[in-house]
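Reviewers of the previous submission asked for a worked example of the structure-prediction workflow described in the proposal, so we include one complete record here. The input consisted solely of the amino acid sequence. No template or homolog information was supplied to the procedure at any stage.
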Amino acid sequence: MKLAMVGLGRMGGNMVRRLLRDEHEIVAWDRSADAVTELAGEGAEGAKDLADLVRRLEAPRIVWLMVPAGAPVDQTIEQLLPGLSKGDIVIDGGNSNFHDTIRRGAALLTRGIELIDAGTSGGIWGLENGYCLMVGGSKAAVGRAEPIFRTLAPKDGFAHVGPTGAGHYVKMVHNGIEYGMLQAYAEGYEILHHSKDFELDLHQIAAVWNHGSVVRSWLNELAERAFGDSADLADIRGYVDDSGEGRWTVQEAIDQSVPAPVITLSLLMRFASRQDESFSAKVIAALRNQFGGHAVKST
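From that input alone, the workflow returned the following structure tokens.
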């Protein structure tokens, strides 16, 4: 299947590589000419701009966006529109707010263009492990794009969860849960780190927990990896950003009158990390770097 990929960063670039491995044809564009050149050298068809990207596809087209949430998505769609036509599909694989996705989907539909929202999880490890895809859109549009999703996802890692907006809604809550899980691991490791009675090896503990314990998980495997790199995370500042989804999850909980104290407090603890140095914040920063390649602030 031939499609275009806009945005060749940490995730978009590796998604192109995974698609190429399965013999999909990819037209690729990014603001960075170097990123385009690199992937062109690996088999993608490089485009010089968005207009050129659209011209290289035959209708009905599929264009996948991996760009930052918010205005960049609107701006990219606006630049694509002159070349798109009825029957085309735009897939937003970023972390857009589901309200924005519903709005964009309705606007595109007036032109006969369908929007699919693909909540995408897997981070920098997705190239080899596959990407968990939570997909929203019409049955017909998702059916057309399904070969793409099947290539990108591991076995049983793709689900059509509802109409346009549902994919980003589910991904929003997924990330809210992630906030709470990271906070729980971080607090536990901080208690171990500060033990007055024992000199504990956090790398050893993370490793043994990953073999048969109730708290074993991929996140804890990444904790084992992080502590293997640096037992006390000395080079990482305990400063944790939030990319929006945690806030949106908390706001949705408020709007739905659903108590979500763990997710809410984990968001507030990220705010606190920007004011005070703490080992638990170092753990979260280290794990976010491990699973998503998110930048860390050095000490």
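The mean pLDDT is 96. We consider this example representative of the routine output the project will generate in years two and three.
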